Amino acid sequence: MKLKARYTFFTLSILFLVYTGSIYLRPLRAGSMNSSKEAISGRIVWQKYNCQSCHQLYSLGGYLGPDLTNIMSQPGKGEVWVRAMLQVGPKQMPQFHLTEVETEELIAFLKSTDSSGVADPRNFKTSASGMIESNGRN
Ligand code: HEC
After folding, report:
1. 3-state class (DSSP) for residue 69
2. Window from 11-25, 70-84, 111-125 with minimum mean pLDDT
3. What is the pLDDT of residues 83-129, one digit of tens each?
4. How far apart are alpha carbons 22 and 15 in whole angstroms?
5. Contact residues of ligand 1, CB 6 A cut-off
6. What distance in angstroms lies between residue 101's CA and the mean position of ligand 1's atoms?
7. Exposed e or buried b for every residue in 27-42, given b needs 16+ CB within 10 A?
């Protein structure tokens, strides 16, 4: 009896460790966020100028401007477009007079958010296991 309980405990512990490991490795397999030094500095620039107060990342943030998670791969947008918008300051968006370095870092940051996944919930599907995944339409 005691041996059986030990065996059950041991088996469940192994299963727990394997499952935990598989969950923590998941983002690595799915193509994790590109966290280059430049992209990390870009996140600081993003916070410094409070871009989040008007823009969303992954649908969270202010709603004066559009969601910027996937701006880098949006048809007709991308790097050149973002550069232009930052220089001009469209509509209610202030012209921030960013330095060239800040602009480069912001672009690296937006590239990393783009590579991390899809923000538009219309592109999500729920798998049988309950996980939310892209339906590949983006
Ligand atoms: C005061 C609000 C506000 C702040 C703060 C703000 N923006 Fe904007 N942003 C806007 C508005 C409004 C637009 C124009 C949306 C439109 O054209 O309909 C815009 C447009 C953009 C666009 C073009 C989006 C597209 O889909 O064409 C980019 C890129 C952008 N902003 C980046 C930034 C970044 C980076 C920051 C921080 C440095 C920032 N914005 C801060 C309000 C803001």
Report:
1. coil
2. 111-125
3. 999 999 999 999 999 999 999 999 999 999 998 888 777 777 888 88
4. 11
5. 49-51, 53-55, 64-66, 68, 71, 77, 82, 85-86, 90-94, 96, 106
6. 19
7. eeeeeeeeeeebbebb
